[in-house]
């Protein structure tokens, strides 16, 4: 890999821009690059046509080259939710914002679509604007703006901002991915999950925003639909309709620390259950509401999710929104963002953390649905990148808690999980690495070809589990969880005590994961530290990931058996390199 292009320039915290940028508006404008162009998507073609028609009827001529502006001026600052970017590719990235002068009360915009100008520059001061244009903020989609800016250089950082007459948005920083097939010497990504706003401050996001990352993944529970506030008030009851979900996203997105994390780098987001309803499965709600009622609720929740995320897919039609997708990173890696909620079979055995029952023996029960499973199978088997990173919501590896299993995790879908293990075990699937969240606890472990024979089974991949940004783990269960997980021979690390996020550094030779935890979420600020660091060595194409292919096993830890497999002591750093279970 000598001479490979290096990605991932460190981001000094001082380069982050959390506040709005005032001053004169740029005058250089070039059309093009708007998202949802007619050639991309028929639905947006209709949307665009409707917008043009509306403009002809209701909108007065404008003076800018954008051609049209809203009939009614925006008088209060509209960029209250910040900006964001996401779904980067070698030549493009999606830019996002939403106009919401009164964010917690439906947004506060007058009826009618609005035109928003956008700019992408090669420098933070916008001296070298490389792309610019105008986009529609449709009233039907909460005046959200999605711009799929194309024509960008691969493997390049950019800065972007939006404006409407009188107001300019904060500046966001984003980047493209390396050219397909190109050699990449290094990249770094982060991931987060479970950010219950009412349960704590986003001290984790403050530090996440300052990490030198190329991209960040969100594994779900971006919002919580439920009520409840331990530290911060959450207005409104349980989110159940479009307005309720919009106001909840607006509450979360109004947090300046979360905004800072979005302003620092592009995100690739998937979802878990709380974006709609706790532990829902396809069209089955937590409380077994009538299917048609829940279909309507899911449609409105999915729409609000789309309105508030920088995602490339067209807006939802009804209650269906395919979001599984992949993000390439040159020759170094491919990232697969999965959807474990929209297509899954209902949780077995009455759901919850219960003993296995006959439901778990039903081979037809699915976690991903047939179409997504077939897509992943084809994509991973045809991938020739060194790493294959699967970003998804719930813990995949076997995690029995005494006689019980969590029916909401892959443990509750053993046949579906075995199909994943069989895929990961294929020789052409190189270095599968699974990212998980949901349980509000940190963890790491090996993925086994045969969970019924842990001593004899080859290791066919690895899983890293991130703790919550701010959601709670029951204090009385912290030690019990640690004791139970530490007894699992394939587990490497567990810590349910702390909140935080995860960073992973990928090279052609290794993946180094750091679990970053904060001291507190009960105060607006906190220190951060690395709780555990774990390095996995990449294996060459065609070689199985097995203990024999990695460096020597780690010495036995004080609280559990030594895990076999590809683990090695980390460089001298103030972190533990042995298996550790702090519960
Ligand atoms: Fe959660
Ligand atoms: Ca969850």
Structural commentary:
The structure is a single chain. With 583 residues, the chain is α+β, with helices and mostly antiparallel strands. 17% of the residues lie in helices and 23% in strands. The strands form five sheets. Strands 12-13-15-17-19-18-20-24 form an eight-stranded mixed beta sheet. The protein has a six-stranded mixed beta sheet with strand order 11-10-9-21-22-23, with helices on one face. Strands 3, 4, 6, 7 and 8 form a five-stranded antiparallel beta sheet that branches. Helix 3 (242-253) packs parallel to helix 5 (291-307). The chain is globular and about 70 Å long. The two termini are 40 Å apart. Residues 194, 221, 274, 438, 440, 471 line the site of fe (iii) ion. Residues 221, 272-274, 438 line the site of calcium ion.
């Amino acid at each position: 890999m000598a001479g490979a292009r290096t990605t991932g320039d460190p981001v000094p915290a001082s380069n982050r821009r959390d506040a709005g940028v005032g001053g004169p508006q740029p005058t250089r404008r070039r059309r093009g690059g708007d998202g949802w162009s007619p050639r991309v998507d028929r639905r947006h073609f209709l949307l665009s046509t409707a917008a043009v028609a509306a403009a002809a009827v209701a909108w007065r001529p404008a003076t800018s080259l954008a051609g049209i502006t809203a009939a009614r001026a925006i008088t209060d600052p509209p960029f209250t939710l910040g900006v964001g970017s996401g779904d980067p590719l070698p030549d493009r990235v999606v830019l996002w914002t939403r106009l919401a002068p009164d964010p917690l009360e439906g947004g506060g915009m007058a009826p009618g679509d609005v035109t928003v100008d956008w700019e992408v520059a090669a420098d933070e001061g916008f001296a070298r604007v490389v792309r610019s244009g105008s986009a529609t903020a449709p009233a039907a989609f909460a005046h959200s703006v999605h711009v799929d800016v194309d024509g960008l250089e691969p493997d390049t950082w950019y800065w972007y901002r939006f404006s409407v007459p009188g107001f300019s948005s904060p500046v966001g920083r984003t980047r493209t991915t390396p050219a397909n097939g190109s050699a990449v010497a290094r990249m770094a990504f982060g991931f987060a999950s479970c950010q219950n706003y009412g349960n704590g401050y986003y001290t984790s996001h403050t530090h996440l925003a300052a990490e030198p990352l190329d991209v960040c993944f969100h594994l779900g529970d971006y919002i919580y639909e439920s009520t409840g506030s331990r530290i911060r008030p959450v207005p409104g009851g349980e989110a159940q309709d479009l307005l309720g979900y919009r106001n909840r996203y607006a509450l979360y997105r109004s947090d300046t620390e979360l905004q800072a994390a979005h302003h620092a780098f592009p995100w690739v987001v998937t979802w878990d259950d709380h974006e709609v309803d706790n532990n829902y499965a396809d069209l089955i709600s937590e409380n077994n509401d009538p299917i048609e009622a829940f279909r309507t609720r899911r449609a409105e929740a999915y729409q609000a999710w789309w309105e508030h995320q920088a995602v490339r897919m067209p807006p939802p039609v009804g209650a269906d929104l395919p979001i599984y997708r992949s993000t390439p990173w040159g020759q170094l890696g491919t990232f697969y963002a999965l959807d474990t909620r929209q297509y899954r079979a209902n949780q077995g055995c009455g759901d919850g953390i219960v003993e296995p029952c006959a439901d778990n023996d039903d081979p037809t029960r699915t976690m991903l649905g047939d179409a997504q499973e077939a897509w992943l199978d084809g994509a991973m088997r045809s991938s020739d990148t060194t790493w294959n990173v699967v970003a998804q919501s719930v813990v995949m590896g076997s995690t029995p808690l005494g006689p019980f299993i969590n029916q909401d995790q892959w443990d509750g879908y053993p046949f579906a999980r075995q199909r994943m293990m069989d895929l990961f075990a294929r020789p052409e699937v190189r270095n599968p690495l699974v990212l998980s969240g949901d349980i509000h606890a940190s963890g790491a472990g090996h993925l086994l070809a045969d969970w019924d024979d842990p001593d004899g089974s080859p290791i066919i991949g690895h899983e890293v589990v991130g703790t919550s940004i701010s959601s709670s783990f029951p204090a009385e269960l912290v030690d019990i969880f640690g004791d139970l997980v530490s007894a699992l021979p394939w587990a490497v690390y567990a810590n349910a005590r702390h909140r935080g996020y995860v960073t992973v550094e990928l090279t052609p030779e290794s993946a180094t994961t750091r679990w970053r935890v904060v001291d507190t979420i009960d105060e607006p600020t906190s220190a951060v530290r690395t709780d555990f660091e774990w390095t996995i060595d990449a294996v060459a194409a065609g070689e199985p990931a097995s203990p024999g292919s990695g460096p020597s096993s780690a010495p036995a830890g004080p609280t559990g058996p030594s895990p076999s497999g590809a683990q090695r002591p980390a460089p001298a750093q103030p972190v533990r390199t042995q298996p550790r279970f702090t519960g």
